[in-house]
Amino acid sequence: MSRRRSPASLDAVADAVRRGGVVAYPTEAVFGLGCDPFNAAAVQRIYRLKRRPTTQGFLLIAASEAQLDPFVDWARLAPEALAEVRASWPGPHTWVLPRAASAPAVVAGAHQGIAVRVTAHGPAAGLCRAAGGALVSTSANRHGQPAARSVAELWQQFAGADLDALLDLPLGGLERPTPIRDALSGRSLRGA
């Protein structure tokens, strides 16, 4: 980074999100980059920071299912699929669910659905609660590079970048990013 950000308190990081900032924070397995999913300029900034194609989209994390209501069309899920999703949350399970009409297209990329997770990781869930809603959650890395598992690795990949805040708390202990499954097809999209 042109100037490294000192770690900030949870409230300061949440305030940066609410002001339209891009922040780094710990998730279950890696550091993530996040922002308010309704702030298109912040979402576009993350695409640029990662050098990631906008067709790929981002997943969202939340502290509760209710925080996902603006993004998910729950009525399009079969009762059995909804029960399976709910049984896995809060926890390290990401699901592709039917996208609500109110979900910003910039977050979903070229996908019809939207990838979401209700996290049980304390720092990430706390950030969602403090920010007042779900957050974009994408691994802190340049497209195609290994995800940052430490603040030192975060700075290595984003030297010269201007992140607005850093929440430097422990990762959740997973060795790999959360598995992703499509709730409509049951298909595994990442991990197992």
UniProtKB/TrEMBL annotation:
InterPro entries: DHBP_synth_RibB-like_a/b_dom, Sua5-like_dom, TC-AMP_synthase, TC-AMP_synthase_SUA5. It catalyses: L-threonine + hydrogencarbonate + ATP = L-threonylcarbamoyladenylate + diphosphate + H2O. Residues 7-192 form the YrdC-like domain. It comes from the Bacteria. GO terms for biological process: regulation of translational fidelity; tRNA threonylcarbamoyladenosine modification. Keywords: ATP-binding, Cytoplasm, Nucleotide-binding, Nucleotidyltransferase, Transferase, tRNA processing. It is found in: Cytoplasm. It holds the Pfam family Sua5_yciO_yrdC. One of its GO terms (molecular function) is double-stranded RNA binding. The keyword Nucleotide-binding applies. Its EC number is 2.7.7.87. The keyword Ribosomal protein does not apply. One of its GO terms (cellular component) is cytoplasm. Required for the formation of a threonylcarbamoyl group on adenosine at position 37 (t(6)A37) in tRNAs that read codons beginning with adenine. Catalyzes the conversion of L-threonine, HCO(3)(-)/CO(2) and ATP to give threonylcarbamoyl-AMP (TC-AMP) as the acyladenylate intermediate, with the release of diphosphate. PANTHER family: SUA5 (PTHR17490), THREONYLCARBAMOYL-AMP SYNTHASE (PTHR17490:SF18). Belongs to the SUA5 family. TsaC subfamily. This is Threonylcarbamoyl-AMP synthase. The gene is tsaC.
